[in-house]
Specification:
With about 250 residues, the protein is of the alpha+beta class. The chain is built from six helices and 15 strands. Strands 8, 9, 10, 11, 12, 13 and 14 form a seven-stranded antiparallel β-sheet that branches. It has a six-stranded mixed β-sheet with strand order 6-7-3-2-1-15. β4 and β5 form a beta hairpin.
């Protein structure tokens, strides 16, 4: 396997220099970290499943005109994406009270919200991704008011589409996190939905039983964490036929 220059390694993914100018190879790991106590672990096959799930959702979104950084899947654990300048914000779109939101506002988990609520968080591991207002974003120059308008429109459009898509599989899209990046085209830029869409950053509950099929299974020390991810892929009709350990990972060149 050819050596490739590593650009970045995070908790769940590794980014490598792409084979063509303006591209990056995104490698999905099985590693995971609890969003609460920082506990780390391995969810066997998570990388394979997240690669397939994110590919499927990104392609479906592009079909309805939502621009994304996805180019194509390369193999079981890797996909080719556009190189973009990431905006240091996480947008959280909430449809149902859950997790920290339910705790902050004293709302029973599982309560449907009157309307979808969008929160902005400054992306910083050291600062634990603090929630910020539009005034912070524009004052620090992280994004412009037109950027925020477009990001909000794309995030809500993504929410509407994914909510309906998951509803058809018997799943409830409780909330999800989304990030955006700027694609430079000569002297102009356009915003693309970036990062990933998977059970790592989407809360997905069974419509009838409210059973959790997402990263909360790991966060809350539940059994059969892998099976939650597998169930999402199964309901979407994309559960991989081959095993989860057939891609040991690329050789890295620093």
């Amino acid at each position: 396997m050819a050596r490739r220059r590593q650009i970045y390694e995070g908790k769940d993914k590794v980014l490598f220099e792409g084979p063509e100018p303006g591209t990056i190879v995104q490698y999905f790991k099985d590693d995971t970290t609890s969003s609460g106590d920082g506990r780390t672990g391995i969810i066997t096959g998570k990388g394979v499943l997240n690669n397939r799930i994110s590919e499927y959702l990104m392609v479906r979104l592009m079909e309805i005109g939502v621009p994304t950084h996805f180019v194509r899947r390369l193999n079981m654990r890797e996909q080719l994406i556009c190189e973009v300048e990431m905006i240091p914000l996480i947008m959280v779109v909430r449809n149902v009270a859950a997790g920290s939101f339910a705790e902050r506002f004293g709302v029973a988990e599982g309560t449907a919200l009157p309307r979808s609520i969008v929160e902005y968080h400054y992306k910083s591991t050291e600062l634990k991704d603090p929630m910020v207002a539009e005034e912070h974003i524009t004052a620090f120059g992280w994004a412009t008011p037109p950027d925020l308008d477009e990001m909000m429109s794309l995030a809500l459009r993504t929410n509407d589409f994914l909510s309906g898509l998951f509803l058809g599989t018997g799943l409830r899209l409780v909330d999800f996190r989304v990030e955006f990046g700027r694609l430079w085209e000569e002297d102009q830029t356009r915003l693309l939905l970036a990062d990933e869409l998977s059970p790592d950053n989407c809360r997905l509950w069974d419509l009838q039983t409210s059973e959790k099929f997402d990263h909360d299974r790991f966060d809350r020390n539940m059994d059969n964490v892998e099976e939650g991810y597998q169930e999402v892929a199964r309901r979407l009709g994309i559960l991989p036929e081959s095993g989860p350990s057939d891609m040991p990972g690329p050789l890295r060149m620093q």
